Amino acid sequence: MYVVELSIRLSPMPVAVQRKELNDAEALYNQVKQALDTGSPRVLELTCEKDEDKRISLLSSELVAVQMYEKSAMGGGGKRPGFSFDG
Hints:
It is built from 1 helix and 5 strands; from the N terminus they run ββαβββ. It is an alpha+beta fold. The protein has one domain (2-74). The strands form 2 sheets. The chain has a 3-stranded antiparallel sheet with strand order 2-1-5, with helices on one face. Strand 1 (2-8) and strand 2 (15-19) form a beta hairpin. The radius of gyration is 13 Å and the shape is globular. It starts with a strand and ends in a 17-residue tail after the last strand.
């Protein structure tokens, strides 16, 4: 399982979207990254793979950062999401 995590301006909690396959997670990551690159505000609609009725829409101009990591990496002894010197 892979997590694409979006940091939103003035929000302490990120929005996380999970994808089962690496290719799907990379496609979502690239879609969000492209929205950040363009600079012009647009609405991004993100959906849940498990429950397709579950959706969220975000204004791209309010996004600050996007990161992708493998969910199992959050478990004990694995790599933490983001960048750190701890490995």
